[in-house]
Design brief:
Elements lengths: L9 E6 L23 H9 L5 E2 L6 E5 L9 E5 L4 E2 L5 E2 L1 E8 L1 H4 L3 E11 L8 E8 L4 E2 L4 E3 L6 E8 L6 E9 L11 E13 L38 E3 L8 H10 L3 E6 L18 H11 L3 E10 L2 E2 L13 H18 L5 E6 L2 H4 L6 H18 L4 E6 L4 H8 L5 E7 L22 H12 L3 E8 L10 H15 L6 E6 L7 H7 L6 H4 L2 H7 L13 H14 L8
Parallel strand pairs: 15-23, 16-17, 17-19, 19-20, 20-21, 21-22, 22-23
Antiparallel strand pairs: 1-14, 2-7, 3-4, 4-14, 5-6, 7-13, 8-12, 8-14, 9-10, 9-11, 9-13, 17-18
Helix pairs in contact: 5-7, 10-14
Length: 572
Amino acid sequence: MKVIRMLSIVCIWTMIVAQALAYNSINVLSNGGFENGDLTESANNIMGSYPWFTSNSGGNTIAVTGEQTRSGSFSLMWNPIGWNVKDDKTLEDASTFILTSVRDYTAKGVTTARLSGFLNTSALKPKFHVQVILANDSFTRFDVDTVVAGGLPGWHRFEASMPLATSDNAMFIAFTVKGTKGIGAPGSQVYIDELELVYSGNDTTEEMRTEQEVEMPVAEKPKPSANEDLSDSESPHKIPIGLNHLPKYRDINSRQMAEELGLNFIVGVTQWLEPEPDQYVWTGAKHDEFQAHLKEMKERGYRISITFTNVHMDQKHLPKYLKGKRFNDPNLLDRWQKYLEVFLFRYGDYIDYLNIGNEVNNYFGKHYDEWTEFQRFFRRGEEVIRRLKPKIKVGVVLVESRREFFWKQIEPYCDHLAITYYTPCSAFGKSPTAEALDKNHYKYFARTLDEAIRVAGGKKILITEIGCATHPDIDSSPELQVAFIRALFQWLYGKEDRILGMSWLAPTDWPYEATKQALQGYLDAAALQHEPFMKYLTSLGLKYEDGREKPGYAVFKDEISQYRRPANKPQD
């Protein structure tokens, strides 16, 4: 098999429990290893001298069971009855651990470990949550946001990952039940199935390439020379690209900027604006600027995405007369349907994509008891849209945290998965932006975006916000923004069948104090008082607040132009 040597070859190893040790991509600790019901022996076969062990409370047990299985005959059943007592006599939540050696893998170039599997928490009280934690042998913890709520029916997939270094010798995999410190969870069970542990990284050993090498497409498209004429050459099949809210209505400067950059995609937000029943903000208005702007953009050939902010990041926004109502309240659902019918009559012909909620898993991760109710709200809206304006594609915007968990439950009612992505920065902890540009780092941007494509399954993704801050106080810079823009556009090549559109967040840096005022009620008050976070939020533009261009502006313009060129321009 011919191998393209210019590309680094990624080899993947997977630990499995079976008759003999093997490395491939099948399940771990699921069906093959526990038919005889001997958990310790099976664990030792795969993990060498590192067996499974549980907390030191005595009753906190894990065993093989046939009671609840997702596939095959057996799964793992964990009784989080006890809790952990540390050496200093302080208490920890009930936990069970796997400790496994990673030395053989890190020595051969492994840089990342990814654990995935399924949890069934239907027999765990709803007041508890199962947290999946990965840690290295120096007890540095990773991916602590991987949480599954207690009392959920059925199986729910989880995934956690952590970086590995050549100095790492072992890795801890911990399952913890939050809220059990000092009390345990008597009478509860957590079921675990289809565990898979995958190591990945750049293989530096020639002898291990023989069975792993595959023919891969060239990662970068050759760019045409700068003197090629762009007239009549733009491909109609390229992904639409925009800057959020650009151009603005009747704003000459922003229109000139949009034309200069060659934008053809616009993202906007709207809210359920109904001060009193049947009283709409457009009622009695002499001129509906929102409608006029949408119509103008449509006539200019833009693709248009609008997102309702009834749930916006970590906040919930409903009309004042419905404040305090649950999302599944019959009166609220009827009022929502009536509002949406009128909204679609006025604006529906100008909208291509309509998202019901923005970054909603930020909110429902903290208010999970409302998630099922919101699905009723979402479905009512989706049914109205499909009945009145079937050409509109319906979606929801989800951030990275627990995206797959929420998507799987709402995906049947969506045409696409909308996402937002921002490069890391040191706003709340040490996380330099350079990590997003390191192909061997677990925060590498392409890894995150590729994962969103995987999660979406057969449906396409819509990137409603993407960006890279530049403030030096948060371990970033204008130069890193340039590097990210170039890498991002290279990643876009060949993704036309998976991405509906992409919009950079901000053309110009937002003013610091005005941003704090404008986001009151939309973001947590503590975040708005956090100076590093505000420096991140107000340095995402391609221009500085005073209108001066950052280096990224010219690069963004050039990359759009290069991306739009056809692969092979016909000869005159």
